[in-house]
Amino acid sequence: MAATPGTKPKTSPKSIKFLFGGLAGMAATVFVQPLDLVKNRMQLSGEGVKTREYKTSFHAVASILRKEGIRGIYTGLSAGLLRQATYTTTRLGIYTILFEKMTSADGKPPSFIMKALIGMTAGATGAFVGTPAEVALIRMTSDGRLPPEQRRGYSNVFNALFRITREEGITTLWRGCVPTMARAVVVNAAQLASYSQSKQFLLDTRYFRDDILCHFCASMISGLVTTAASMPVDIVKTRIQNMRTIDGKPEYRNGLDVLIKVVRKEGFFSLWKGFTPYYARLGPHTVLTFIFLEQMNKFYKIYFLDS
Fold first, then answer.
1. CB-based contacts of 285: which residues, under 8 Å, 6+ apart?
2. Half-sphere exposure (CA, 13 Å, Cβ side) for 81?
3. SS in 3 state form for the chain?
């Protein structure tokens, strides 16, 4: 049924927006979890020294497969799925709702600056909700690189959350919350705003229609922008969430301490350590998330709103 003049077209309920956001992120994670593991391993490799444990992404993959087998490459999948169920559900749900509120009655979308602000708000909120799953994910994916006697040995994400709470206190579940939220602000300002902007640009060229090819191209552009902007903040988050407390003292005091130590001991460009798997993970994850989301929204519109 068409919308009457001067009114916004019917849209899906807020609960459906949140649900579809989480499901889209979880479906994409099933495909890219191995890349997330490689990215985390590379960010933690050679910690505090100039030499690196892995020379390239392919070296990291080969090493993990040789030492841990096929199952090892999917270590932490349960945590990755829970992260999407919490972080992405909140992030995309809030972004979609705010985007629609800022869209004028005649269908004109928000400005680029407004898209960025909406993305940052959605990202920070989602990051706070998803930090416990993020902590579990970082620890589970990094476990295999440690000597057997130093491994935490979490069996799944719920075992990880329970043991972290019991052994280190419930506040540890939000360790690294500030850099996680800061990373999310950078990621979402870049990813969500640049996706919307790229999609609009491609449609304006009239060479593209609003279909999967357009969504794919816009997502790849968005993923590249996001990778370049967010990696230094991401390595801070990874190091803090994986750190141990030695003799009552944490390895890092705060995010700035991480940046200083990485640059001084490992070199400036180590802030972009793991660039290839980061983009190889973020690009396809962005593509798959938005493709799944767009298809679910289209399906819901056809069968529930237009019927």
1. 25, 28, 29, 31, 32, 223
2. 12
3. CCCCCCCCCCCCCHHHHHHHHHHHHHHHHHHHHHHHHHHHHHHHCCCCCCCCCCCCHHHHHHHHHHHHHHHHCCCCHHHHHHHHHHHHHHHHHHHHHHHHHCCCCCCCCCCHHHHHHHHHHHHHHHHHHHHHHHHHHHHHHHHHHCCHHHCCCCCCHHHHHHHHHHHHCHHHHHCCHHHHHHHHHHHHHHHHHHHHHHHHHHHHCCCCCCCHHHHHHHHHHHHHHHHHHHHHHHHHHHHHHHCCEECCEECCCCHHHHHHHHHHHHCHHHHHCCHHHHHHHHHHHHHHHHHHHHHHHHHHHHHHHCC
Measured distance between the N- and C-terminal CA atoms of the chain, rounded to whole angstroms? 7
Q: How far is the C-alpha of 307 from the C-alpha of 302, rounded, in Å? A: 7
Per-residue pLDDT of the chain (307 residues; tens, 9 = 90+): 455 555 556 667 777 877 887 898 899 999 999 998 998 998 888 776 667 778 888 888 899 999 888 888 999 999 999 999 998 788 877 887 888 888 888 888 888 788 878 888 888 999 999 999 999 999 999 998 888 888 899 999 999 999 999 999 999 999 999 999 998 888 777 776 788 788 989 999 989 988 889 988 887 888 788 888 889 999 999 999 988 877 778 888 888 999 999 999 888 888 988 888 888 887 778 778 888 888 998 888 888 877 6
